[in-house]
Specification:
This protein has 213 residues and is α/β, with parallel strands linked by helices. It contains nine helices and seven strands; from the N terminus they run βαβαααβαβαββααβα. Bound molecules: adenosine-5'-diphosphate (2 copies).
């Protein structure tokens, strides 16, 4: 089992980069998307998670790690995974190392997407997503080809309830406090590769593909 981790603040473009990596055969795992699925299904976990997510806070480590454990334990040993938004705390990173070791898995690359805060706010406030296929758009930077409708599914696009300026600023603070320390954690393991995510989408995607060989 092989893992690539996309590390970076909300809005850096992790989901947008993932779209091309999926075409290369990676299995995309977004913990945010797994949680939103549970919110849509109105499970007890989903209802609890929604409150935290709308407040810009993290869902508890044990909840997220247990979702990932179940998923990996049920997967083929030679699968290649792309983690988007996980791990997000040092505890998650340590538990993830233990889990991978127990499954004979390795982390091949940790790709760090760098992007300034003001750009991020602009990106997230204008983000639109397709509820059906998860495609990510932006009202000005990456608009759908017609109206407010997904190019793939043809259905209306939605705006996430946590993509308000106030919640985005809160999420950036939480990122700096709890996720940014992962950069030195993976640097010490010689795994970090930095990408400038403040360039046009095609260039960011090309740089990530280059790093992954
Ligand atoms: P973004 O990349 O815009 O931050 P995500 O879809 O990755 O959005 O995450 C949305 C929300 O889901 C986060 O703000 C957080 O509340 C929760 N979440 C996602 N992944 C994790 C995680 N690994 N640990 C804790 N909470 C998480
Ligand atoms: P993340 O998964 O890191 O939270 P997304 O991939 O969802 O970020 O991107 C956030 C928003 O910014 C989306 O509306 C997306 O269309 C837009 N976006 C992503 N990458 C870029 C880029 N390089 N330039 C301009 N806009 C971008």
């Amino acid at each position: 089992m092989k893992a690539v981790i996309l590390l970076g603040p909300p809005g850096a473009g992790k989901g947008t980069v993932s779209e091309v990596l999926v075409e290369k055969g990676y299995n995309h795992i977004s913990t945010g998307e797994l949680l939103r699925e549970r919110i849509r299904q109105k499970t007890p976990l989903g209802l609890e998670a929604k409150k935290l997510m709308d407040a810009g806070q993290f869902v508890p480590d044990d909840v997220v790690v247990s979702m990932i454990r179940k998923l990996l334990e049920a997967s083929s040993p030679d699968a290649e995974f792309l983690f988007d938004g996980f791990p997000r705390t040092l505890v998650q990173a340590e538990k993830f190392d233990e889990l991978l070791a127990s499954l004979n898995g390795t982390i091949d690359h940790v790709v760090q997407l760098e992007c300034p805060a003001d750009t991020i706010v602009e990106r997230l406030v204008g983000r639109r997503t397709c509820r059906k296929c998860g495609s990510v758009y932006h009202v000005s930077f990456n608009p759908p080809s017609k109206g407010d409708v997904c190019d793939v599914e043809g259905c209306e696009l939605t705006q996430r309830s946590d993509d308000t300026e106030e919640t985005v600023r809160k999420r950036l603070k939480v990122y700096a406090e709890r996720t940014a320390p992962l950069i030195s954690y993976y640097e010490a393991k010689g795994l970090i590769q930095q990408i400038n995510a403040n360039q046009p989408i095609q260039d960011v995607r090309a740089d990530v593909l280059k790093v992954l060989g």
